[in-house]
Amino acid sequence: MLSPSPASAASYKCKTSTKSIDTANYNGPWADQWDVKTTLCAKRSGSYVHAYAKVSWDGPLFGEPDNSAIFDAARFRLQIKKSQSGTDPVKLSKDFYGIEARLENSDVWGNYNGSYTTGTTKWKASSANKGYADGVLQLDWRKCCGGYHSHNFKASPVV
Fold first, then answer.
1. Hey, is 67 helix, strand or coil?
2. Local confidence pLDDT in tens for the 159 residues of the chain
3. Count of Cβ atoms closer than 10 Å to residue 81 Cβ
4. What is the pTM of this model?
5. Measured between alpha carbons, how far is 104 from 95 in angstroms, rounded to an integer?
6. Buried b vs exposed e over 110-147: b needs ≥16 C-beta within 10 Å?
């Protein structure tokens, strides 16, 4: 699964949204918010709906470079949903785990800022079906809080 090239990315319809996420395993006096921006993109190519996501963040200053103990696990779940009346069913779901290492990677001063782009996924839809990209950032904070906590973002436009 490859990320779209800049030339092909232009044909995608995208929606960007942001969230401020608290570092759940820290209750000290210092700022601990992760400002996360996610862009969910979808395009139609023949009978296929293609999707990808780009996630970027401005994390807290932990003062410790490259801390692999911030999370027990992290993933971005990218979904393609069929647009229909009522609840939109998930037609394809793929978890991308490479985001954890990126989230835990800082600059030399301990600033946790970065980005991650998922690979592309595709769903074969009939010509009458429309679909869109949806996604959720799931964070399992180190030794805290009972597993993954989900952070939803705004879905792409319907294609």
1. coil
2. 566 654 466 799 999 999 999 988 777 777 789 999 999 999 999 999 999 999 999 988 776 777 888 899 999 999 999 999 889 999 999 999 999 999 998 887 778 899 999 999 999 998 889 999 999 999 999 988 889 999 999 999 999
3. 24
4. 0.90
5. 18
6. eebebebbbebbbbebeeeebbbbbbbbbbbbbeeeee
